[in-house]
Amino acid sequence: MSQGAPSDTSPPSTDQPPAKVGPAGEVTSWVRRALITAAVIGLGLSVSLPTLAIILALVFMIFMHELGHYLTARAAGMKVTEFFIGFGPRLWSFRRGETEYGFKAIPAGAYVRIIGMSNLEQVDPGDEARTYRQKPYWRRMSVALAGSTMHFLMAIVLFFTVVSVIGTPDPTSSRWTVGAVSEGSAAEAAGLQEGDRILAVDGTRYESFQALSAHLRANPGKRVELLVQRGERELTLSSTLGTSQSEGQTVGFLGVGAEFPNERVGPLEGVVEAVQATGETMWLSVKGLGQFFSPEGLSGYVETLTGGAAESDAEAPSEDRIISVVGAVQIASQSANVAAALYFLFAINVFIGVFNLTPLLPFDGGHVAIATYERIRSRGGRRYFADVSKLMPLTYAVVALLALVFVSSLYLDIVDPVSLQ
Q1: Which residue in 79, 244, 310, 380 is a FRET match for 182, CA 20 to 30 A apart?
Q2: Among 204, 231, 263, where does a domain finish?
Q3: What's the maximum distance between 2 C-alpha atoms anywhere in the chain?
């Protein structure tokens, strides 16, 4: 949601005819569009299919956020003049009624322009009744909260899709299979392959991977005989267990990772779980933001940015690090499967929804705070209007801090990409 720029309501001068875009301007416009279109196509061809899917998913999230503002503003009778994906130079647009829709060159977000977002904006007197600032409190709140609400609804849908449509791995299932074989391990020496099912060890059957793992860990260095099902055949393989250290003890190590079958929950249970998970993740996001913007969190982020944290622990990711859009794409595209990617997008939606409710401009939460303050100050049927100009120094400081965090996190994600490995 965007605050519209002040407009000049004076009548146009009749001394000079309005300027027209000549052939040179049209050529420049088409060249710009062609270059950016080629860049977009080149990006699509240069990245992997999972990465491209994540990028499109993030663009869709941004679109849905602004769609929430757009629909509630239209429902409230507000005048919406623009709905654009991206910022900067206009690439392509069309007009329907009083609203212009389209795409701009920099795909770093989106915006909906609603007239009269504050007392700073001048509008045509004939449109004043249709401004955001003149609408009732509940209408302004519905518009301000619509963006985050869309994120929370998308999060619920994503979580529901994972637990009720795709399903989540059941670690207690006896139908697990070998999902990975460690290089140089006893499992590799025995000839185990992905997709195998270990039915028994030394003639003893184990119903779960945990029970099998406990037996193997208790026998370091022992030679074991494995009964394995591979497709329709049963094979007998043997190998000597390796060893590893766990909590100061030497334990047996076969070197297999388990892949568990997915289990789905019913639709009603899925909805309940999705709502609960969204609520819990909202609270975790609030705590995480509080920790990051605390003096200790910002200090830790500066250390991470300057390389101080890397000297003390080069492999562990810093808890004070915040990821950019590039980092989000990197992490999501590394997800082991579709369910993992959807769960990550679920978490991203919740975080963006919570972050956008920060009660400061230019966030939507700032508009919520102003509308609530105006409601409290209004008395006897007389409407109070807050003077937003008094908040501009703080708003500029918030924007500067956001820009610093955005640029620095983008720098970190480029020079030191986040890895799930």
Answers
A1: 310
A2: 263
A3: 99
* pLDDT tier for residue 351 given thresholds of 50, 70 and 90: very high
Q: Which domain holds residue 228?
A: 177-263
In terms of Cβ atoms closer than 10 Å to its own Cβ (0-12, 13-18, 19+), residue 230 is: middle
Average pLDDT over the chain reads 84
- Flag whether 332 is in a domain: no
Q: Which residues contact 237 (CB under 8 A, 6 or more apart)?
A: 190, 191, 192, 225, 226, 228
Annotation marks residue 319 as catalytic: no
Highest mean pLDDT: which range of 3-12, 43-52, 308-317, 338-347: 338-347
Beta bridge pairs of residue 94 = 101
At residue 137's C-alpha, the angle toward residues 133 and 142, to 5°, is: 95
- Options 66, 82, 121, 273, the catalytic residue: 66
User: Both 70 and 115 in a single domain?
Assistant: yes
Q: Residue 221 region, left (φ>0) first, then alpha (ψ -120 to 50), else beta?
A: left
pLDDT at 26 over 70: no
pLDDT tens for each residue of 363-419: 999 999 999 999 999 988 888 999 999 999 999 998 898 888 878 877 777 777 765
Q: What is the CA radius of gyration of the chain?
A: 28
For residues 247 and 111, membership in a common domain is answered with no
Domains of the chain: total: 2
Helices 137-160 and 364-377 meet at what angle, rounded to 10? 140
Between the alpha carbon of residue 293 and those of residues 49, 261, 297, 322, the distances in Å are 35, 41, 6, 11
Residue 136 lies in a domain: yes
Q: Are the beta carbons of 67 and 150 closer than 8 angstroms?
A: yes
